[in-house]
Specification:
521 residues, alpha/beta, eight-stranded parallel sheet, six-stranded mixed sheet, 18 helices
């Protein structure tokens, strides 16, 4: 259980009783505090037999839910039979029974008159279209309370991540046990940060693909990545701002570093559509710092109160710190040194020729492209910018005193051998893993190919470059190096780049794939 008492509940949504019992064992093994029997998911459910089987087998406290179609569930039968099953669950000793607000006015008083004292009634409401204003949510909470609910529950839908702030505001002021969640990927932070704002319970699926609601993380993600059981009201919040952001491995890296250094902080993904709106709404000092990724690195420059000289010169910010003394937002760029140092280290293994004087071709003219171009320019390289939008390529080339190319011309661009190629676009990122920004025949002219994409860790571009006999550097190297620099900006504590990789099978496997590519194994 979280330090202030927030429970982690695993919803069980199997189609059979046997399948639900298997899910229950997995929930126990993965550290759930509570399980939820979603009776509406069971095909041919027999309350008299199946409820006894499920409740007798449980080792954890159980919520019994029998959700109708009109409230987002699977049940389509007679409502009286459904409510009778919930009554039976209470009679059989279920610790919690969840009933919808729409039928609570009649059901709750009847149940309270006969339920065991150990059974608590959750009255819930789900909004699958939007998140109401704080005033409307306050009215909703009062209405739920008026039914006699022991626990108030409401779930809304995030059309924008700023919607979550409305829910946090209601949750933090609540004087009654409350479960309040925002559905969808933009609402993920409501599920992770639930303990910080005083939530009674949050949900984590037993495994990926077994979610009971949109945007639900897994139990293991909540416990192992986000360390949700250790979050408190004064825990500092950091995170990565981007769109898309679900692929990011930064939460794994930064949360492991917080854990290693025993800093009371958590790092979460922020799926942001409008950066200015996000920073305006999430302005509390507890939201202490942010990583910034595609497509917000350039707009972040305008949103900061002050920008460090390197980031100002590059024209892109990948790190924002909220200064403790006055709350102002300070922008930095750790991409440039992170990527260039990784490229230099790889070059040193295969040649004695440094970057100075080399032709350095950058694919992409966005924030990451600017960081690579400026970093290479500072090392004395000659810069070429290739981009789908030729005007953007020319603009960046002019800034670094380089040459611009339309992207389609890159396949036939071979003025000399020994060039460096750096892809800073999202081409080749999951799910489009077979895509590559340049023909494989053109890669023979390059001594080294760098790809900023790290999901997958070994991209199609890197595979084809290695097959052409070219040295390669993956985006994982850049990610680790720039993240270590970010962590020092976040906390004031330096962290070794190599120790920054969490000791997990998945990451070791990714590293081995990368090593095998380099060595041709």
């Amino acid at each position: 259980m979280a330090e202030h008492g927030c429970l982690i509940c695993a919803p069980l949504i199997a189609k059979t009783v046997c399948g639900m019992l298997d899910q229950m064992l997995l929930a126990e093994a993965n550290g759930a505090h509570v399980i939820e029997f979603r009776l509406d998911h069971i095909v041919d459910f027999n309350p008299q037999i199946d409820l006894q089987t499920l409740l007798k087998a449980r080792k954890l406290p159980a919520i019994v839910t029998y959700r109708p179609k009109w409230e987002g569930g699977e049940y389509e039968g007679d409502d009286k039979l459904r409510l009778d099953a919930l009554q039976l669950a209470a009679d059989l000793g279920a610790e919690f029974v969840d009933v919808e607000l729409q039928v609570a006015a009649d059901f709750v008083p009847a149940l309270k008159g006969r339920k065991p004292s150990c059974c608590q009634i959750i009255v819930s409401n789900h909004n699958f279209q939007t998140t109401p204003s704080t005033e409307e949510l306050g009215t909703l909470v009062a209405t739920i309370q008026s039914t006699g609910a022991d626990i108030v529950k409401f779930a809304t839908t995030a059309n924008n991540i700023t919607d979550v702030a409305n829910v946090f505001q209601i949750l933090s002021r609540s004087q009654v046990p409350m479960i309040s969640l925002v559905m969808g990927e933009r609402g993920l932070i409501s599920r992770i940060l639930c303990p910080k704002f005083g939530g009674y319970l949050t949900f984590g699926s037993v495994d990926a693909g077994q979610e009971s609601a949109p945007g639900q993380p897994t139990l293991l993600e909540l416990k192992n990545i986000y360390q949700i059981e250790h979050l408190r009201r004064d825990t500092k919040v950091f995170g990565i701002i981007g769109n898309p952001v679900g692929h990011s491995k930064s939460p794994i890296l930064h949360n492991a570093a917080f854990r290693q250094t025993k800093i009371d902080a958590v790092y979460v993904p922020f799926l942001v559509d409008n950066l200015e709106d996000f920073l305006r709404v999430f302005c509390l000092s507890d939201f202490a710092g942010f990583s910034v990724t595609i497509p917000h690195k350039e707009s972040a420059l305008k949103c900061c109160d002050e920008v460090e000289s390197t980031a100002q010169a590059i024209g892109a910010v990948n790190t924002i710190i909220r200064r403790k003394s006055d709350g102002k937002l300070i922008g930095y760029n750790t991409d440039s040194d992170g990527a260039i140092s990784a490229i230099e280290d790889a070059l040193s293994k295969c040649t004695t020729t440094p970057l100075a004087g080399r032709l350095f071709v950058v694919i992409g003219a966005g924030g990451a492209g600017k960081a690579l171009a400026f970093g290479a320019k500072r090392r004395g390289s000659r810069i070429v910018i290739a981009n789908r939008n030729y005007e953007r390529a020319k603009a960046l080339a002019n800034l670094v005193g380089g040459e611009a190319l339309p992207l389609e011309a890159l396949n036939n661009y071979c003025p000399e051998s020994g060039m460096i190629l750096a892809n800073t676009t999202s081409v080749g990122m999951q799910p489009n893993i077979t895509e590559t920004p340049i023909a494989k025949e053109a890669l023979r002219s390059y001594s080294l190919v760098f790809d900023a994409v790290y999901t997958p860790s070994v991209t199609q571009l890197l595979k084809e470059a290695a097959a052409a006999g070219t040295a390669v550097v993956g985006g994982l190297e850049m990610l680790i190096r720039q993240a270590a620099a970010q962590f020092e900006l976040f906390t004031g504590y330096p962290v070794d780049e190599r120790s920054y990789i969490p000791e997990s099978v998945d990451w070791l496997e990714l590293n081995m794939q990368y090593v095998n590519l380099q060595t041709g194994v």
